[in-house]
Design goal:
Length: 150
């Protein structure tokens, strides 16, 4: 394995480790079921995340941003409008929990999670552009995370 390949693996697993640590901190420092309007956000996040998982074939789901050997470009379901609906779902889910019962630790952790996911998706998109000829065109017709915003 080349030095560049090792560095890419370290970067990929670092994104996932930070993401995992942030989720654990948010879940461990408050309730895992929101109330009021935040419960609606939590439910919307779960529905979006499940929809994205159902659209993606089982063998294609990966935690790391690396493009697998059997990867295909998914353009249906939530992927018609948003390139990273699972990231959107995770941010929405964690934001619902943090805003439902916030603390400085939870807000800082949510910010770190958002920055980590942003870095992860930018890195993933760089890899996807190399792997799929049509990825640039797909990017011009979809939003990264939030329709009409980003």
């Amino acid at each position: 394995m080349s030095e560049k390949s090792v560095q890419n693996k370290i970067l990929s697993y670092s994104f996932v480790a930070i993401q995992f640590i942030c989720v654990v901190i948010i879940i461990a420092t408050g309730p895992v079921i929101a109330d009021g309007i935040y419960l609606f956000g939590q439910c919307a996040a779960i529905i979006l995340g499940l929809w994205a998982l159902l659209v993606m074939r089982h063998g294609l789901i990966r935690m790391v941003p690396d493009v697998g050997g059997n990867a295909v470009l998914i353009r249906q379901g939530p992927y018609r409008r948003v390139r990273h609906p699972m990231y959107t779902a995770l941010i929405l889910l964690m934001a619902a929990l943090v805003f439902n019962e916030g603390s400085l630790l939870r807000f800082v952790t949510l910010a770190v999670l958002c920055l980590d996911l942003l870095g992860k998706l930018l890195y993933e998109e760089k890899l996807l552009r190399v792997s799929f000829d049509g990825y640039g065109a797909y990017c011009r017709t979809t939003w990264r995370l939030i329709p009409f915003i980003y």
